Amino acid sequence: MKKIFTGILFIFSGLFLSSQYLLAQNKLAGFSSGSIDIGIVVKDVEKTAKFYSEAIGLREVEGFNVPKETGKRFGLTDGDEPLNVRVFVLGDEPNSAKLKVMSFPSKRGKKSSQKFIHSTLGFSYLTIFVEDMTDSLNRLKKAGVKLLGETPARLGDSSRYITVFKDPDGNYFELIGPMSK
Description:
Blueprint: H1 2-26, E1 38-41, H2 45-56, E2 59-66, H3 68-73, E3 83-89, E4 98-102, E5 125-129, H4 133-142, E6 153-154, E7 160-166, E8 172-178
Parallel strand pairs: 1-4, 5-8
Antiparallel strand pairs: 2-3, 3-4, 6-7, 7-8
């Protein structure tokens, strides 16, 4: 019995060390995280927060505030308003992607032309990979989100589907994942 336990422990130790080695090999030199956080300025932060939590299913976590003087000192703003940032995550892992949402009520930004993803230079869309497209579609339908094009649509010969829609400010999103049976 002791040999079996030792063997199992050795296997699990090997798997753990192998996974740590693979993680280290996949992380580029100089980066402390394998994730990129994305900040988005929106017109109506409450409406957008509801959209991201209810329609997409992201979970809101503790946000943060940046004083207006600090925003100016960092070159982020002109210093007229503080940054009140709400944060949404895709998962519970420490490296889960974060979407940081903020608005500036007295400094209404100009909406870019987002008729298509090629209409404006810069970041054009976000892709979120889901475990069950059917669940995602039910959330989107309940929230009254209009799907774009002929989506959901199967991606080639795979079992994955793509669903495309826009958030309240017209930013493109695509969900990719399998349909439940």
